[in-house]
Amino acid sequence: MCGRFALSTSMNEVALRMESEPLSDMTPFKPSWNIAPQHLIPVATEIGVDGTSKVGRHFRLMRWGFRPSWGKASHREPINARSETMHEKPMFRGAAQRRRGIVPADGWYEWMTTPQGKTPWYHREESGFSMMAVLWDTWTDAKEHLEWCVVLTQVANEDCRDVHNRMPVLLDEESGNAWLRDGVVPPQPESGTIHRYPVDRMVNNLNHDHAGLVQPIPRLFDHEYGA
Question: In a designed cystine with 102, which of 44, 123, 203, 224 is the match (CB 3.0 to 4.6 A)?
Answer without folding.
Answer: 44
